[in-house]
Design a protein that fits this description.
Shape: globular
CATH architecture of the largest domain: Up-down Bundle
Number of helices: 17
Distance between the termini: 43 Å
Largest sheet: 2 strands, antiparallel
Strand content: under 5%
Helix content: over 70%
Order of helices and strands: HHEEHHHHHHHHHHHHHHH
CATH class of the largest domain: Mainly Alpha
Strand order of the largest sheet: 1-2
Radius of gyration: 27 Å
Number of strands: 2
Number of domains: 3
Structural class: mainly alpha
Length: 469
């Protein structure tokens, strides 16, 4: 059966993106569990000491002195945020956020899902030092949330996965803005101005048509990222700004690419059919022509897409598992049980579980009720309730903001307990709820089908009695 152009150009890339995101969820879970096991074993002291070791990078007066944990959270995670920035720009340019009509429902759903968790945390921690952690329960972990939906397979509609992806992407943008405005230390204006210069260079390079990825890597990392890091503004902001400066246009358009590919194919066929006496020379010429295919493909692919594809494996299979392993290791002792009932842990737990659900569902209902937007195709309200629970899985981003918000070890432990507990509970509720409603729907469909078949059978028997053969 021939695939429609809609499936080729829209649905297949979305399916590919979702499948890539889900695979990392399992690896992150394994890394987090391993960290918890080691942090509560005889190797606990070694585990914690490793992350507190200091590393120096730089020369003369421009020296960065940070612990291994900070290098992971500020350095490696900047690459993660760079990829998030690339995804955001792609969605804005040509994806689910490319038009107001498409974007308005997930935007407001995500906003609701950020406001209510913060309010709940405020309620439990108002007037306390721990109030600084209000941004922790605002985030959604897209890898975990989509991982749960992936386990349900075709029991949930694809449009539901797209809707959750859009909410999580906007949620990431919200978390980035929160970090930029509320979790930034003292700012050194000279370094910030230098970062601004490099940002202008990147934007101008984009405008004049430079498409070399190496140039953007050098100017973005060696210039913008380093300057922003030294300024006191969190380095992840530099990563997102650099990502938005990456070009989305190609060197050659698709029709020209196809013409050049046909020309190369014609030349290769000529070489294959020629009766040249020097076979080695012919093979070399064919190899050179084939190499040109690779260069053509590169010229016909936007730098943004090339970078996003190239970084995916690094981020998914190295950076995020390392982050989870470094941050999820909570050592539990005799006081740990009391931490579950601390203002921080309760604020995060209820903020994620109740705040996310209420915010996403309420804002979605308001948008539909006032006819500003409507639910995606094949998505019912019962599906939206399931999304409300899955969005409460805030693992990666919540732990990231935890490290920015707190320095006190007790508050860090309380926050991590709240994040881990909420993410596990939310994942289980979301999974079993969506599985239950999908089975219920399937059962109704089978029941209707069997009733229809039974009625047809009765009608056939009645006809035989009236008109015997």
């Amino acid at each position: 059966m021939k695939k429609s152009s809609l499936e080729i150009y829209l649905l297949l890339p979305i399916k590919s993106f979702i499948n890539k995101q889900t695979s990392v969820g399992i690896l992150i879970i394994i890394s987090a569990l391993l960290a918890m096991i080691i942090a509560n074993s005889p190797f606990a002291d070694i585990y914690h000491k490793i992350w507190k070791q200091e590393l120096y990078v730089g020369f003369n007066d421009a020296v960065l002195n940070k612990t291994v944990l900070h290098w992971i959270n500020d350095g490696l995670m900047s690459i993660f945020f760079f990829m998030v920035g690339l995804e955001l720009k792609r969605e804005i340019m040509s994806g689910e956020l490319s038009s107001i009509r498409k974007a308005i429902l997930p935007i407001f759903a995500a906003i609701g899902g950020m406001i209510f968790p913060a309010l709940i945390f405020f309620f439990f921690n108002f007037g306390l030092d721990s109030i600084k952690g209000w941004g922790i329960p605002m985030a959604t972990d897209i890898a975990f949330a989509l991982g749960v939906l992936y386990l349900l397979g075709n029991k949930v509609p694809l449009s539901l996965k797209i809707f959750l992806t859009a909410i999580a992407v906007i949620d990431d943008l919200g978390a980035i803005l929160v970090v930029a405005f509320f979790y930034t230390s003292e700012i050194m204006m000279n370094n910030l101005a230098m970062g601004g210069v490099f940002l202008v260079v990147l934007i101008l390079a984009n405008l004049i048509g430079i498409r070399n990825s190496i140039f953007y890597a050098i100017a973005g990392i060696g210039g913008l990222w380093m300057a922003i890091m030294l300024s006191g503004v969190h380095a992840t902001i530099a990563a997102v700004l650099a990502a938005f400066a990456i070009p989305t246009s190609k060197k050659i358009n698709t029709p020209l690419f196809l013409r050049k590919v046909k020309m190369l194919s014609y030349k290769i066929r000529q070489k294959l059919t020629s009766k040249s006496s020097n076979k080695n020379k012919t093979e070399d010429e064919i190899t050179n022509l084939i190499e040109k295919f690779s260069l053509l493909t590169q010229d016909a692919t936007p730098p943004l897409q090339r970078l996003e594809s190239g970084l995916h494996s690094l981020v998914s299979f190295i950076i995020l598992p390392i982050f989870a392993f470094a941050n999820a290791g909570v050592t539990l002792d005799s006081n740990s049980f009391n931490y579950f009932f601390s203002d921080v842990a309760i604020g995060i737990l209820l903020g994620l579980l109740i705040g996310k659900f209420v915010g996403i569902v309420l804002f979605t209902k308001l948008m539909v009720f006032f006819k500003i937007s409507k639910l995606p195709p094949n998505v019912k309200w019962k599906h939206v309730y399931g999304i409300g629970f899955l969005a409460a899985m805030g693992f990666t981003m919540s732990l990231f903001i935890t490290e920015l918000a707190f320095e006190d070890d007790v508050l860090l432990t309380q926050a991590k307990i709240g994040v881990l507990s909420a993410s596990i509970i939310a994942g289980l509720i979301g999974y079993f709820y969506l599985r239950y409603i999908s089975r219920k729907s399937t059962g109704k469909a089978i029941s209707l089908k069997s009733t229809k078949t039974s009625n047809l059978e009765h009608e056939r028997k009645a006809d035989l009695i009236k008109n015997p053969v």
